[in-house]
Amino acid sequence: MKKLFLLLFTLLLPMVMMGQRHSKGIGGIDVFGGFSLGKYTGWNTGIGYSHYMTSSDIFRITGEYTQYKRKIYTREFDILNYMAELEYLHMVVSNHNNLYINLGIGVKGGYEDIGKAKDYVNSDGRVSDIKSRFMAIPLVAGEAEFFAFSKTAFLLQVKECYSPMSDLRKWNTTIGIGIRQLIF
């Protein structure tokens, strides 16, 4: 019985320990993946760096790759986005132990590549102004952090982006999961 108690204690202790995120100046490496909702679904993946400016404010820079399918005329094509993202998040709810809910705003910019669709949309007498282009996109974000261990958090992210420069998709909602590993 004593061995079972010690085993449970050592397994559950890290889950109830306070996350180290409350110290100003701590940073974390984020790795995440997710999918896009809506008419044109797809997936995304990325890596980023989060910096805790205060105990409740986070600044994040991220590199992200997104791929989704879009039907143009009669064929479906893979559309690729290569983006860099800046976000500011503020903690709105917390149990001050291991669960934190953050809301924020940001901007991302990058390149939308329509790839093989370029030749197709301008063939067979069709002329289209759809093209690959650089974009700047405002966004709002929500994030839940759950610190399973003192330096490791599981993330659930929801982002809504508005892409006025895109010819193919003006609104983009993404849901993602990831891991944040704190570093000093």
Topology summary:
Layout: H1 2-16, E1 27-36, E2 42-52, E3 57-72, E4 75-94, E5 99-113, H2 117-121, E6 133-149, E7 152-162, E8 171-183
Antiparallel strand pairs: 1-2, 1-8, 2-3, 3-4, 4-5, 5-6, 6-7, 7-8
Q: Which key features would you list for this structure?
A:
eight-stranded antiparallel β-barrel, mainly beta, single chain, 184 residues, elongated
How would you characterize the overall build of this protein?
- The chain has 184 residues and is mainly β.
- Helix content is 11%, strand content 61%.
- It has 2 helices and 8 strands; from the N terminus they run H-E-E-E-E-E-H-E-E-E.
- It has helices spanning 2-16, 117-121; strands spanning 27-36, 42-52, 57-72, 75-94, 99-113, 133-149, 152-162, 171-183.
- Strands 1-2-3-4-5-6-7-8 form an 8-stranded antiparallel β-barrel.
- A hairpin with a 2-residue loop joins strand 3 and strand 4 (75-94).
- The protein is elongated.
Rg on CA atoms, Å: 20 Å
Largest beta sheet: strand ordering: 1-2-3-4-5-6-7-8
Beta strands, count: 8
* Terminus-to-terminus distance: 39 Å
Helix tally equals 2
Helix content: 10-25%
| Strand-residue proportion | over 45%
Low-confidence stretches: 15-19
- Largest beta-sheet characterization: 8 strands, antiparallel, barrel
Q: Helix/strand-derived class? A: mainly beta
Helix and strand run: HEEEEEHEEE
Mean pLDDT figure: 83
